[in-house]
Amino acid sequence: MSTGQSRSAPGSPVTEPGKRSDFTVAGILLAAWRGSRGRLGLAWRGLGAYVGIIVLFNGAFLLLAPDEPGSYSFGLPNLPGLIDELVQGLILLPMLAGLFIFGATFARGLTPRPASIFEWYDHSLTLLLVIILSHLLILLGLLFFVLPGIYLLVCLQFAIPLAIDKQLGPWAAMRRSRELVTPVWFRMFTLNLIAGLLLAGSVLLLGIPLIWVLPVLLHTWGDLYDRLAGLEEHTVLRVTRPRRRAGLRQP
């Protein structure tokens, strides 16, 4: 890959956090295109489970609790809607965190295990608190002059992977994400705009371009996280080494 940075092998020393922030938007996207091309199968083995569960979840909820007149009061969702969001958060947030780590390892040119996205449920409560606090802060920012909310919306994107990779609490993960993203905020904002346009364009084209777009975005955000925060060595080993079956002797 032409990122200008060498990728580490599993177990090798990990680059210090914050030492690779001299990227360009075009360079990141070009590296993502080159890095995901020819590896779409691996990318979709990780993406497929996450996307599939979202579709199943939403489909099941629509069947079991379809919207009815009066189901919303004063703009607030009804109780089934709140329960659905809570359950989805507890189930999907650890998978989203795992997908971030999968993408960062994938962007290094390594071969992460697709099943590794399911291995972060011990952090479910922390991740739920991260997302609740993030949404509250973003909402407050949007209510007060809008711009603070947009700033936080971009800055807090890495709070979820930071919580599991760096073993941080909710507030510490959010603070660290803001510290990492602020120096590159305009580049991150531009990448978010481009990602939104790519996704919208793909939907207009019947979703067919998503076959390539989603792996490119997986690589992009994984690469960004690894450049700014630096994956911990124990995390790299956890997602690349096969899990040993219980009862088998360690060599």
Brief digest:
The chain is mainly α and 251 residues long. The protein is built from 10 helices and no strands.
Description:
This protein has helices at residues 25-36, 40-64, 79-107, 124-143, 147-155, 159-165, 170-181, 185-204, 210-228, 233-240. It has one domain (25-65, 78-240). It has ten helices and no strands. It is globular. Helix content is 64%, strand content 0%. Residues 1-18, 68-76 and 245-251 have low confidence and may be disordered. With 251 residues, the protein is an all-alpha fold. 30% of the residues are buried. Helix 3 (79-107) crosses helix 6 (159-165) and helix 3 (79-107) packs across helix 9.
Strand-helix topology:
Blueprint: H1 25-36, H2 40-64, H3 79-107, H4 124-143, H5 147-155, H6 159-165, H7 170-181, H8 185-204, H9 210-228, H10 233-240
Note the main attributes of this structure.
single chain, 251 residues, mainly alpha, 64% helix, disordered N terminus, disordered C terminus, DUF975, membrane, DUF975 family protein, transmembrane
